[in-house]
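CATEGORY: protein folding

GOAL: derive structure tokens
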Amino acid sequence: MGKAERNRRQSAREKIAAQQAAARRAQVRKQVLLTVGSVAAVLAVVVAFVVIKAFAGPASAGSNTATANASVVANLTSVPASTLKAVGKGSALTYNAKPLIPITGPALTENGKPEVLYIGAEYCPYCGTERWAMAEALSRFGTFSGLRFIHSSASDVYPSTPTLTFYKATYTSKYVTFTPVEETTVSKQPLQTPTAAQEALVTKYDVPPNTTENGSIPFVDFGNKFMLSGDQYNPQLLQGKTWAQVAAALQDPSNPIAQGADGAANTFAAAICKLTNNMPATACTPTVQAIEGTI
């Protein structure tokens, strides 16, 4: 084999080797790109979930999103004493002449303090109106944390009533214990289950004798001394309002919402003052004590 032929064959082998090396490098690049692409796709999905969760806010167990709003909570839980005095019983005792009825039984207590038991549901518009008043009244005796705002069911009467939920909220007080039970979500799915003792109270006080009725909600038992009997103001007052608008209206004694909700809160406060022997004085004001004589 001549030198020229050997050179040609060597050149051909080198060319083939170079082509094979180039092909291997291309394959490696392809695999790297596929791997990087897969990792990037996974990271994109993870980031998307994190962003969605961050912007969605805390949710109730139902389909309705619950929103925390510090300014709304502040307006709800610190209605000025001058407003409460001006409202007095408001329209609550006009709308429902006997919103609280006396009941008899062993004192309902928890941790040595009178207990207020609430049983309701997130979908219920009547629970929705009473929660505003209850949160406002109880805030005179203690402190809430974790209150969140929802709407009642969009497919029920008074659809999408702006309200709050007691689900996952906590309450601390030196004077009274508050036990809330939200039985179902906005979409009417099970949420919290009353204890056997709580069910017994509902059966005893809220279910008419010799019937199979389930009782009405909200059911509110004030230490086994008083029970809420029907709603205290019309849910229609809240239709089309935002949470902020409702909370702001509570500050104006001439506003129909304040006349209803603040009046209802004063009535709730009167029942609680009966349980606490009119303590503290900041909650059991002369205005509230005057209402005590009507329940």
User: Anything to note?
Assistant: The beta strands are 100-102, 109-110, 113-120, 142-145, 148-151, 162-165, 170-173, 177-182, 219-222, 226-228. The mean pLDDT is 83.
